[in-house]
């Protein structure tokens, strides 16, 4: 009689995702994952052909995690790109390892940085359209300038070089928008 499966694909995936959040993607190995999931490596390789297949699934899971984070993050600013920037910077601060996986890794499984940020609900497109309503003639160009500032600030949180309070970050984002608007 065949032995009943006790470790499911979801158990493995959840354990791996927790490892990514806690230790970083680069530290997810089959042995460490097996220990975290409370099994041998056999169930991992029964479910996944290899660690690269698991890596892609973890990446997609991280995208969904970011999108939920973005949608739940309070939005209260009436200047385009400020809430988007604030959310992105805070995500980097709160989820350093997921931020590295999504926004700093070379392997993005066919997705651009823009695709990741825009998400399924069109977060960037909404902001660009809002900037047009705000009176911006070249909102795509303005987004590029804002994005360079936003991404730089978010990356600085990873090294501890950006630790401004939220109110100062909002002011910086507003000032950037206004200066780039000219």
Describe this structure in words.
The chain is built from ten helices and no strands. It is mainly α and 182 residues long. It folds into two domains: 1-48, Orthogonal Bundle (Arc Repressor Mutant, subunit A), CATH 1.10.10; 59-181. α1 (9-23) packs across α4 (51-72) and α5 packs across α6. The longest helix has 22 residues, at 51-72. It is elongated.
- Return residue spans where pLDDT drops below 50 for at least 5 consecutive residues: none
- What integer is the average pLDDT? 93
Radius of gyration: 19 Å
Number of helices: 10
Q: Tell me the overall shape.
A: elongated
For the termini, the CA-CA separation is 74 Å
Secondary structure tally: strands? 0
Strand content: under 5%
Helicity, in percent?
over 70%
Q: Work out the count of structural domains.
A: 2
| Class inferred from helices and paired strands | mainly alpha
Write down the secondary-structure element order: HHHHHHHHHH
Question: What is this entry, summarized?
Answer:
This protein is mostly helical. The chain has ten helices and no strands.
């Amino acid at each position: 009689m065949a032995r009943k499966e006790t470790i499911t694909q979801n158990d493995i995936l959840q354990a791996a995702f927790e490892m990514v959040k806690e230790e970083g993607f680069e530290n997810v190995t089959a042995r460490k994952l097996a220990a975290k999931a409370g099994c041998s490596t056999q169930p991992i390789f029964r479910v996944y052909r290899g660690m690269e297949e698991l890596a892609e699934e973890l990446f997609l899971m991280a995208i969904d995690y970011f999108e939920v984070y973005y949608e739940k993050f309070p939005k209260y600013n009436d200047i385009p790109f400020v809430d988007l920037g604030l959310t992105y910077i805070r995500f980097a601060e709160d989820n350093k390892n997921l931020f590295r996986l999504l926004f700093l890794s070379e392997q993005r499984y066919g997705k651009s940085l823009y695709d990741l940020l825009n998400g399924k609900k069109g977060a960037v497109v909404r902001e660009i359209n809002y900037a047009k309503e705000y009176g911006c003639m070249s909102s795509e160009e303005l987004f590029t300038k804002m994005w360079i500032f936003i991404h730089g600030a978010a990356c600085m949180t990873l090294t501890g070089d950006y630790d401004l309070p939220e109110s100062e970050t909002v002011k910086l984002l507003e000032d950037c928008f206004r200066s780039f608007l000219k």
